[in-house]
Amino acid sequence: MGPTKDSVENKVNLAKLSLEELEELYERQNNILKNKKIVQHLPDKGKQLQQKLETVEKEIELRKDVKKLEKSMKALAIGSLNEEVAKENHVQHMCSIEKSPTKDRYKPFSTLQKEDKTKSEKPTQLIPLRESITLLTEQANKLTIEKARINIEELEEEHVEL
Fold this sequence. Notes:
mainly alpha, about 0% strand, about 75% helix
């Protein structure tokens, strides 16, 4: 005996329902099963109802697992916004553990005899890690833009030569 037309229709319907609708259906089926008077009057004493309830429960669990998997896959996506958030979290963590020097560090510029007075006499300046990372990021962006401009110029020159 193969699956009946009714059971095939139920499976198709379950696949089309949203998670909220499945949860609502589960609650209704469960409430019917709890009502002993209704279950006693059913010809199969609620066996089909119990099977449908189990099927709905499995579908709900499957949907929840899929949602969890989708969330974890989004977190693993390369080049996504989450990567930027992770970088920012890392920067914040590194900045939080950065310690300011409690005493003056050894400064080689102050111990060397300076013969050339034309050079700037400003000592090396300590800057916070966050500011350093910002400067490095800006420099990297400028280099990328400059490389792109040079490549465009080279392509235009090659196109003119052809």
